[in-house]
Amino acid sequence: MTGLNPMKATRSLTHALGETVRSAGSRPRMRLIATKHTGQSQVSKPSLLASAAYRAALTLLLVMLAGLTALTAQASNALANKGCVDVALVLAVDGSGSVNAREYNFQKSAIAASLRDPEVLKALKRAGTVSMAVIFWGDPERATQSTDTVQIRDPADAETLARMVENKSRTVLGNTGLGAGLAAAMDKLATMGCAFRSIVNVSGDGEETTFTRRKRVSLRPQQARARAQAEGITINALVISSEAKDLAEYYARTVITGPGAFVMKVSDYGDYAVALRRKLIREVSPNIVSQANREQGRLE
Q1: DSSP symbol at 257
Q2: Domain limit, last residue, from 52, 81, 110
Q3: What is the Cα–Cα distance from 135 to 115, expressed in whole angstroms?
Q4: What is the rounded CA–CA span in Å between residue 41 and residue 245?
Q5: Domain of 131?
Q6: In a 10 Å sphere around its CB, with 0-12 CB exposed, 13-18 middle and 19+ buried, how is residue 192 labelled?
Q7: Would you tell me how many other CB atoms lie within 10 Å of the CB of residue 179?
Q8: What is the rounded distance in angstroms from the CA atom of residue 5 to the CA atom of residue 2?
Q9: pLDDT tens across 160-199, in order?
Q10: Average pLDDT of every residue of the chain
Q11: Contact at 8 Å (CB) between 164 and 150?
Q12: Is residue 93 assigned to a domain?
């Protein structure tokens, strides 16, 4: 879309609206004063001026709100004309050495089951057009594994992606390259075209493994998070941990970002499937942006 960045324009107008509300302050009360001779009450001039200022600020706020609505509609139409999808979503799944073969296969089965779940399918349909892909990450020295991107418009499309995941043989292992995994997920998003919302759904059972020597330079989680912020990408996390009690806090502090970003925690892989279904439903739901201010960084 030429000449219009809807995300930046929306943030600018929203900020201006907030400044207008703050500058207007609370609505002034009419202050009554008594005259010396008649004892009758009159409205003081300062109160009248304050009331007029409030009405002017309120009028300006309403005008700006109308402009914001029109701009959003214009941006939506322009993006739709470009063939943009409503949501681009990449599931970034931990395949490092800390995940044994049984757990790895369980993750694949849980993803496939979620893509066949009736409630998830309803949420995907409500979200509009959703492009999805799944990557498996591990050691930064190894290449990540990725499915093709599937544009999900009906259950048959979701089934196509589910079978891709089920048929994916494991090649990732090694150390926990969380930052590299996030970078790979964002690289995958870059191949999926434009979208109203771009989301990485990362799951992991450990912190980034620190190395003194690496053949390949890779991003740390904090650097990947900064890239996501710059590119307007939301990162949500699903943490699997029964031992590291502060792992969810680590992901909240160094990984997640974006409107309504959140961390979900399960104690073992037995709870992974249920949590993943809940997570998918939540992050594709259209109302996630409206909840951003009160839910960002939330732990569950």
Answers
A1: B
A2: 81
A3: 15
A4: 66
A5: 85-299
A6: middle
A7: 22
A8: 8
A9: 999 999 999 999 999 989 999 999 999 999 999 999 999 9
A10: 79
A11: yes
A12: yes
